[in-house]
Design a protein that fits this description.
heterodimer; A: alpha/beta; Rossmann fold; Alpha-Beta Plaits; six-stranded parallel beta sheet; 8 helices; 35% helix; B: alpha/beta; 2 domains; 43% helix; elongated
Chain lengths: 208, 213
């Protein structure tokens, strides 16, 4: 998997670090040579120096081969424009850091997923304050080589059984209601199953 | 709740806490930020430098339940937390924002345990999105009251057996173990995993059933 990240600030660097651990090939694009040189000492990823809203720069980062493009500079308009350019190159998953709600609407109208730094950071703080263990634990989960993953179940009604040693169910969400994966729970078409798993093995099989 | 620093993250947190019905005071030294906060959130604002003890006292830091030091510079946030302690702040929760990992060690030396690095937290959210998982979905389910997550810890051998019995009784009814934390390492609660003294078990619960029990 190849991912192109626009912006080598604190956020871009942290995301690159996590993706790298997950075995993703990362290319960071940043307009500042200083940033690129500084990061090159700390991160084993590719760098392209240039304007992220310039198609030629993105081509240099081999945007057309990327499975995801992440626009993580501190500027909403640059993130929006570069995301829309990435869309033209057919990148399947595009995520932009956007703080302003009207930029967010432009992005979403064009199939770009949006993440707000202040909303996500404040959500984490709220989670810490009210002891939402699951969210608090996410950083630890990352470090330990575990993933939380969502699987959308399609098929006949059947029992949830995970045969894999390295995957473990957390919960099943059905039409806005949460079910615990207790023995005897029947899976239905359209259920969303949340599992926690070790990263090495990339699949799980529910036995029907 | 006292929030020092009314910029992006501080403001967004203030909004969330107000929606929860908490009484919030924001401290910021910038007059225009202060008036914006008053207008947009209707929140109580104290204008001034939060490292200044008089300012902290005006914000009522002595009697607050939680203090968040969220200005842009980590060293200032450490100072705010230290100044608040000297002021007699006995808040159960003191959360310090540190953007640079260099300060992590300093914080632990000074006894500041709750340290957050927003860029790292948001990076986790973004990397989950790359794989198609929205952590916010989990958080939302929690906040909307569908699920709760709780941890139980077996401090010593004596309590261990009682805990194992308790969990065995609960599982299959209203809760489900999702993780075991041993020596700060996470383990999956596989069937043949034996619990030891000091282990922490993280359980997920359905909210309605939790109330019933």
């Amino acid at each position: 998997m190849r991912v192109v990240i626009a912006g080598g600030g604190d956020l871009g660097e942290s995301v690159a670090r996590i993706l790298k651990i997950q075995g993703v090939h990362v290319t960071i694009v940043d307009r500042s040579r200083k940033t690129c040189e500084k990061l090159a000492k700390r991160l084993d990823v590719d760098f392209v120096e240039g304007d992220v809203s310039d198609p030629l720069t993105l081509e240099e980062a081999r945007i057309e081969e990327a499975s995801a493009f992440l626009a993580l500079t501190g500027d909403d308009s640059i993130n929006t424009i570069s995301s829309l350019i990435a869309k033209r190159y057919g990148v399947p998953r595009i995520i932009a850091r956007i703080e302003d709600s009207s930029y967010a609407r432009v992005c979403e109208a064009n199939g770009v997923e949006v993440v707000s730094f202040v909303e996500s950071a404040s959500m984490m703080l709220e989670a810490i304050l009210y002891h939402n263990k699951l969210i608090e634990l996410t950083s630890l989960i990352e470090e330990e080589g575990l993933d939380i993953e969502r699987i959308d179940y399609h098929g006949k009604t059947g029992e949830l059984k995970i045969k894999h040693n390295d995957a473990y169910p957390i919960m099943v969400v059905r039409g806005g209601e949460v079910f615990l994966p207790n023995p005897g729970l029947k899976l239905k078409d359209g259920d969303r199953i949340f599992i926690i798993k070790r990263r090495k093995k990339l699949f799980y099989i529910p036995e029907l | 709740m006292v929030i020092a620093g009314g910029g992006g993250v501080g403001k967004a947190l203030a909004k969330r806490l107000i929606e929860r019905g908490e009484r919030v005071v924001v401290v910021d030294k910038d007059p225009s930020t202060c008036s914006m906060l008053r207008e947009e959130l209707g929140v109580e604002v104290v204008e001034g430098d939060a490292t200044n003890m008089n300012v902290l006292q005006r914000a009522g830091v002595e009697h607050c339940d939680a203090l968040f030091a969220l200005v842009g510079q980590g060293n200032i946030n450490v100072m705010i937390a230290l100044a608040a302690t000297v002021c007699g702040c006995k808040a159960g929760r003191v959360v310090v924002r540190v953007d640079n990992d260099r300060y992590l060690e300093v914080c632990s030396m000074l006894g500041l345990k709750e340290v957050v690095n927003p860029a790292k937290s948001v990076a986790v959210v973004v990397s989950e999105m790359v794989r198609g998982v929205k952590l916010t979905t989990l958080a939302e389910m929690y906040y909307k009251g569908y699920i709760d997550v709780e941890s139980v810890k077996a401090e010593d051998e004596q309590y261990l057996q009682a805990l194992v019995t308790k969990i065995a009784h609960m599982v299959g009814q209203e809760c489900h173990p999702i993780l075991v934390i041993r020596n700060s390492k996470i383990m999956l609660p596989e069937p043949n995993l034996k619990l030891k003294a000091g282990d922490e078990v993280v359980l997920i619960k359905r909210r309605s059933l939790m109330c019933a029990s």
